[in-house]
Amino acid sequence: MKVEAKMLLMLGVFFGIMCAVYWKWSLEDAGGVMMFAGMLLCLLPGSYYYWWSRRMKERPEDSKTASQAEGAGFVGTFPGSSIFPFVLGVGAFFVVLSLVFGIWMLIPGLGLAFWAFIGGTSEGRRGGSH
Amino acid sequence: MTDALLTTHETSDHGHEGHDDHHGPSGLLKWLTTTDHKIIGLSYTVTAVVLFVIGGLFAEIIRLQLASPNGTLVSLAQYNELFTMHGSVMIYLFVGPFAFGALANIIVPIQIGAPDMAFPRLNALSYWLYLGGAITMLSGFFTAGGAANFGWVGYAPLSSSLNTPGAGADLWIGGLLLTGFSAIFTGVNLCATVFYLRAPGMTMFRMPIFTWNLLVTAILILLAFPVLTAGLIMLYADRHFGTHIFTNSGGGVPVLWQNIFWFWGHPEVYILALPFFGMVTEVIAVFSKKPVFGYKGMIFATLTIAALSLGVWAHHMFTTGTVLLPFFSIMSLLIAVPTGIKMFNWIGTMWRGQVWFSTAMLMSLGFLFTFLIGGLTGIYLASPPLDFMTHDTYFVVAHFHSVVMALVLGAMAGLYYWGPKVTGYLLNEKLGKAQFWTLFIGTQVFTFPLYLLGLYGMPRRMALYPLDPQWKTLNDVSTAGALLIGISTILFVVNIGYSWKKYPAGDNPWDAQTLEWFTTSPPPHHNFYRLPQIRSERPTWDYNHPEHTSLAHGKHEETKA
Question: Domains in chain B, please, with CATH?
Answer without folding.
Answer: 34-548 (1.20.210.10)
